[in-house]
Each structure stands twice: as structure tokens, then as C-alpha cells.
Amino acid sequence: MVRTVLSMLVRAGSEAEFERIWRAAAAEIALWPGCRGQTLLRDAAEPRQFVISSDWDDRSALRLFEGSSVRRQLSAGLDPLREKSAKNVFSVVTTVGGDVRERSTLP
């Protein structure tokens, strides 16, 4: 599995529009073969700073999406709202889950 992490600074006053357009785009991307899910994060201290993480079966599935006209079309709505962005692609080495019931017994 691979995870893309896209950090971006959204133009002042565009935060709500950015979230709205991202939600619509994410619903379309979720239908793409190999997409396992996406998350939108917003910095609590700097509300213009967002992070999008996206999980894919493998780099091949990600590359197919990245090269598609669908990706270009969906990104076109977000691009004008961003001041800057940086993207990284990571191979997921391991994931450790948690159990809330276990934590409730800790001091």
C-alpha cells in the first residue's frame, strides 16, 4: 500500500470553498480502482493549512489515477484556491491500531 500526503496552504477566505470542492472530488476519487480512502486534515493552529492523505493499493494504481483526465479535472477546482503545496508518496511499512476499550483501563 502507498500513501500520498499533500500539504497545502489555502488562500485566505477560501477555506470553506476548498473543503466543499475537496469533498466532491474525494467522492469521485473514492470510485477509482485501487483507492482505499482519503482524509482531509486542517491545522488547529493555522486554519489555512490543510493536509490530504490518500491510500492506494500500490504505486501502479496511484500512477494510473495521477495520469488520468479525471485527476486533472478534479484538481482544476482546487488549484486556484492554493497558495502553495508539497506532495510526498510513502510506502506504508506497518500500521498499529488501537482499541479504545483497552485505553479506558489505563491510569
Key words describing this protein structure:
single chain; 4-stranded antiparallel beta sheet; 107 residues; Alpha-Beta Plaits; alpha+beta; 4 strands
Characterise this structure:
The protein is of the alpha+beta class and about 110 residues long. The chain has one domain (about 1-95): Alpha-Beta Plaits (2-Layer Sandwich), CATH 3.30.70. The chain has four helices and four strands, in the order βαββααβα. Helix 1 (about 15-30) runs antiparallel to helix 3 (about 70-80). It is globular. About 10% of the residues are buried. The mean pLDDT is about 90. InterPro entries: ABM_dom, Dimeric_a/b-barrel. This is ABM domain-containing protein. Pfam families: ABM.
CATH class group? Alpha Beta
Q: How many individual helices?
A: 4
Largest sheet data: 4 strands, antiparallel
Radius of gyration: 16 Å
Q: Calculate the terminal CA-CA distance, rounded to whole Å.
A: 35 Å
What's the number of extended β-strand segments?
4
Instruction: Write the CATH fold name.
Output: Alpha-Beta Plaits
Helix/strand order, N-terminal first: EHEEHHEH
Shape summary = globular
Overall number of structural domains: 1
In short:
By secondary structure, the protein is α+β, with helices and mostly antiparallel strands. The chain has helices at residues 15-29, 59-66, 69-78, 100-103; strands spanning 2-10, 35-42, 49-56, 82-91.
Layout of helices and strands:
Layout (H helix, E strand, L loop, with lengths): L1 E9 L4 H15 L5 E8 L6 E8 L2 H8 L2 H10 L3 E10 L8 H4 L4
